[in-house]
Amino acid sequence: MSLANSSPVASSSPQPASSAFEKLSPVTGESQGTFAITDASGVEAAIKRARAAFPAWRDLGIDGRIKVLNRLRPVLLENAESFARRISEDTGKPIQEALVTELISIWLYHDYNRKHAARVLGRRRVKTPLVFTGKQSYIEYFPRGVIGVISPWNYPLQLAVAPVLSALIGGNTVVLKPSEVTPLTGLLAEELFKRIGLPEGVVEVVHGDGSTGAALTAGDIDMVFFTGSVATGRKVMQAAAQKPIPCELELGGKDAFIVCADANLERAARAAVWGGLVNCGQTCISVERIFVVDSVHDRFVQLVREQVESLRVGGPDEFADVGPMIFARQISTVERHIADAKEKGARILTGGARVDRPGQFFNPTLLADVTTEMAIYREETFGPVLPVVRVQDEEEAIRLANDHEYGLNGSVWTQNLSKGMRLASRLECGQVAVNDVISTTGHPGLPFGGVKASGIGRYHGEEGLRAFMHTKGLMVDRGLLNNEPTWFPYTERKLPAVLSLARGVIGGSIPKLLSGFINLLRSDK
Ligand code: NAD
Question: Do residues 268 and 416 both lie within one domain?
Answer without folding.
Answer: yes
